[in-house]
Amino acid sequence: MRALQVSVLGLACLMYVVFRPVSAGNILYPVLAIIATLSLADLLGLSTLRSRRLDPKYVLAVLLLGAAILIASLVGAVRDTPGLLQQFLVWFGGTLIWSIWAAAIRAEHIRRLLTAVTASAGVLAGLIVLYVGANLGWLPSIIPPALLEEQGAGFDGSDGSAIRLYGLSSLVIAGPLAVAGALSPRNAYLPKRWLLIVVAVLATLASFVAGRRAITLVIVLTPLLMLLVRLVLQPRRERTRPTNVRIPIWVVVFLPVAIPLLAWFVTTPLAKQIGEAFVSVLDLLGILQSGTDSADLRTEQAGELLSGWSQHPFFGAGLGGVLESGYTRSDERHWAFELQYHQFLFNYGAVGVVLLSLAAVLILALARQAAAANASNLPVLIVVGTAALALLIANATNPYLQATGHHWGIALAVGVAHALAVDRAEPALAPAPRPHLAELRT
Predict the structure, then answer these.
(1) What is the Cα gyration radius of the chain?
(2) From the centroid of its chain, how far is CA 93?
(3) Three-state SS across 229-247?
(4) What are residue 155's phi and psi, to 5 degrees?
(5) Rounded CA separation 18/15 (Å)
(6) Would you say 179 and 204 are in contact if contact means Cβ atoms under 8 Å apart?
(7) Closest of 364, 370, 378 to residue 417, by C-alpha
(8) d(CA 236, CA 190)
(9) 3-state class percentages of the chain: helix first, strand second, coil last, to nearest 5
(10) 20, 30, 65, 190: least CB-packed within 10 angstroms?
(11) Nearest-CA neighbor of 184 among 384, 426, 415, 414?
(12) Which of 320, 437, 290, 413 is nearest to 363 (CA)?
């Protein structure tokens, strides 16, 4: 029997979450409930007739994460924080749903799940390109108005190109995932090469024309993020330098024209937008002070949150806590801030952050275990790890993880690592070696 998680219904629900991760809670929450129910059935063996074996490191990581959330919730309840219920539903509810989903992933599910995510991201990116192109007069207006209304579409061309679209935020995960997949060697766990390339191009173009600096930044940084993930995951015994280094012919041909192309590129609006994205990150890190309003606001917000944490350093202010100074960034939710990691420290305190860090270390150990289990596992681990890392980087200044619909980016990487560590790469999924020419002749 096929697992319900990768059934037509299960994949359709996942694709919907990717396509519209926020708003329309009357649809999103039932969809998330269906995902959790189908995954739980697979986990218990009700659909596949074989129960799922879980790695102890995964179980302990989930328990540590749950403990941190419950402690912060208890602190919030004691202090009667105004945003406790909303934050509890986001963090505990999201952890419950996506941890079940991740645990139910099996090695034979990986390619279907990645293909569904990539295809949904491709439709989303194509929609964004068509929408912006139509508003700028480059392309005909062919998108049904009802679809744009459902996505909450809005366009502002007063300062470059900036749009509002509910699904746009999914590209912060799916964009790097598609780019990393397109740059990776062929692998039986990854979607078709042509699909990855098409979606990578569409997602990159969509991020540029949409005017979202964080998304643009992580997509541009994808090759570097891939290298970092590889260095962390690749077993030491495989980190050997090749004895015979061959320079591809395309490198020799491209080098003479690389400098003129680079000189032309830095004069384009695209290069300007990429540069602005880097400036935003440097502002946040304090490396460069540009004096922009957004940088000043982030600096002010960081100081307020650190000051609030200093008042409750060990257990934090609790989930849904607000700053005693009265400082806010949202009229509707006084407990919500853009600087997520500063807010984690403020809400969870040092104890909660230590528990979260221990959970992260266990997941990293699980991913390294998966990489060591089979050499063919490394490419797909790098792809999903790059997507998760991109989300974590962008989340520093943009509250992506405040929405349960974005948690799939982390859960996908964790679930793939767990599946490959536990299942030990089933032989049917191992890439088949190509026959040698001499073998064909015989």
Answers:
(1) 23
(2) 18
(3) HHHHHCCHHHCCCCCCCCC
(4) -130, 135
(5) 5
(6) yes
(7) 370
(8) 24
(9) 70, 0, 30
(10) 30
(11) 384
(12) 413
Count the Cβ atoms, other than its own, within 10 Å of residue 300: 12
Print pLDDT tens along the chain (442 aa): 578 999 999 999 999 999 999 877 889 999 999 999 999 999 988 876 677 889 999 999 999 999 999 999 999 999 999 999 999 999 999 999 999 999 999 999 999 999 999 999 999 999 988 888 777 777 777 878 888 778 877 776 555 456 778 889 999 999 999 999 999 988 999 999 999 999 999 999 888 878 777 888 899 899 999 999 999 998 776 555 544 445 555 555 666 666 666 666 666 655 665 565 556 555 555 554 555 556 667 788 888 999 999 999 999 999 999 998 888 888 888 898 988 999 999 999 999 999 999 999 999 999 999 999 998 999 999 999 999 999 999 998 888 999 999 999 999 999 999 999 998 644 334 444 444 434 434 4
One-letter amino acid for residue 138 of the chain: W
Can you tell me the distance from the alpha carbon of 71 to that of 344, in angstroms, rounded to the nearest whole number? Answer: 13
Q: Which two tokens stand for residue 177?
A: 């995932």
User: CB neighbours of 195 closer than 8 A, spacing ≥ 6?
Assistant: 115, 118, 119, 122
Q: How far apart are CA 343 and CA 42, in angstroms?
A: 35
* Distance from C-alpha of 305 to C-alpha of 325, rounded to nearest angstrom: 10
Distance CA 137, CA 153 (A): 17
Residue 163 host element (H or E): strand 162-164
Task: Please report where in the chains the tokens 């980190």 appear, as a residue.
Answer: 239
Three-class secondary structure assignment of 298-367 = HHHHHHHHHHHHHHCCCCCCCCCCCCCCCCCCCCCCCCCCCCHHHHHHHHHHHHHHHHHHHHHHHHHHHH
Contacts of 84 (CB under 8 A, 6+ apart): 73, 76, 77, 318, 319, 320
**DSSP readout, 120-146?**
HHHHHHHHHHHHHHHHTTSS---S-HH
Give the DSSP H/E element, type plus range, for residue 82: none
Alpha-carbon gap, residue 334 to 419, rounded angstroms: 40
Question: Does residue 115 contact residue 187 with C-beta atoms inside 8 Å?
Answer: no
The predicted pLDDT at position 197 comes to 93
Cα separation, 412 vs 395, in Å, equals 17
Cα–Cα separations (whole angstroms), residue 83 to 68, 404, 407? 17, 16, 20
The residue among 384, 354, 348, 352 whose CA lies nearest residue 366 is 384
End-to-end Cα separation, the chain, in angstroms:
41
**Structural tokens at position 228:** 């970092």
Phi, psi (rounded to 5 degrees) for 154: -150, 145
